[in-house]
Design brief:
alpha/beta; Rossmann fold; seven-stranded parallel β-sheet; about 45% helix; about 15% strand; globular
Length: about 325
């Protein structure tokens, strides 16, 4: 079986390429500007842009399964880039897949926390792509499966490990509402297990499946303080109410738009860190036979070991 992984240099795409190669699948790995730290010798790497239809069409030829992990995944940025990459890029891939009769198209989305008022361009364009894909399934039986992970972390993660660690070291992070928000942690190996199960299971075409570690009891405060202790700190220095944090985030976003000053906090981040939404993985268990093998205790231990090995902490 031949697989295409878009976003192959990203945290999730890179881990997926490694696992697919390890399990003996033929793999095409699409890179954009970022390069992976280690290239898999048995994978075929292609550099290009999913918004380029002339590149995408030959890329999909002879492929059985597409894992679409590529996205412009930021809290902020120009609306046009989110639309072009997350929506138009997805449409390009779908059109190419239809031309070559790809058997499965596994779309990596995300679990949304934002209220409709606070939803950012990343979530909006992911929603648009989901609606487009489901419409293609209903009208044309396009073989899509939508996987929605929570906060994906583990060794090598930038967004939910390294960036948070650096912010903690510089005292540039605060607990919001005492850190009571639910951390929907999703360990990278668990997510890859779910993605491979979706590839193998015939019953899941047309389904949307939430994937986390199945734990709705770990708070952001617990996670952030765990990271802080790795740096030698005993706690997070600052604490803000959600109301104050939202006001601050709106002010810094105005500074970003006017002066291009990188925002310390965004409205989307405030929504994530104050999340009270619990997520069930029963559908993943039933349809995919999914059972998370790495729990929070083991996951955080593996993160710490990796940070020490890479000299991010002593």
């Amino acid at each position: 079986m031949k697989c295409l992984v878009t976003g192959a240099a990203g945290f999730i795409g890179n881990a997926l390429v490694k696992r697919l190669v390890k399990e003996g699948y033929e793999v095409k790995a699409l890179l954009h500007k970022t390069k992976p730290n280690i290239y898999e010798k048995k994978a075929e790497y292609v550099t290009g842009d999913i918004t380029d239809i002339d590149l995408v069409k030959p890329l999909v030829k002879d492929v059985d399964v597409v894992f679409h992990c590529a996205a412009f995944a930021r809290d902020y940025g120009p609306k046009e880039i989110f639309l072009r990459v997350n929506f138009e890029g997805t449409k390009n891939l779908v059109l190419a897949c239809e031309a070559f009769e790809v058997k499965k198209f596994i779309f990596l989305s995300h679990i949304r926390y934002e209220s409709e008022k606070a939803i950012g361009y990343y979530s909006k364009t992911k929603v648009m792509a989901e609606h487009y894909l489901l419409d293609k399934y209903k009208k044309d039986k396009f073989p899509v499966i939508i996987i929605r992970p929570g906060n994906v972390y583990g060794p090598g993660a930038k967004r939910w490990v390294l960036r948070l660690l650096q912010a903690i070291k510089k005292n540039r992070i605060a607990l919001i509402d005492g850190g009571k928000g639910i951390f929907l942690h999703t360990y990278i190996d668990n997510l890859v297990d779910a993605l491979l199960a979706a590839m193998k299971e015939p019953r899941v075409i047309g389904e949307i499946i939430d994937v986390t570690d199945g734990d709705n009891n770990t708070s952001w405060g617990k996670y952030l303080i765990s990271l802080a202790k790795m740096t030698g700190k005993t706690n997070i220095k600052w604490n803000l109410s959600k109301k104050t944090a939202l006001l601050l985030s709106k002010l810094v976003m105005i500074s970003y738009r006017l002066f291009k000053i990188e925002p310390l906090v965004t409205p989307m981040a405030v929504e994530v860190f104050t999340n009270q939404q619990k997520v069930s993985i029963e559908k993943a268990r039933y349809l995919l036979g999914y059972e998370p093998k790495v729990d929070f205790h083991e996951g955080i231990k593996r993160v710490e070991d990796w940070l020490k090995k890479e000299n991010y902490i002593s």
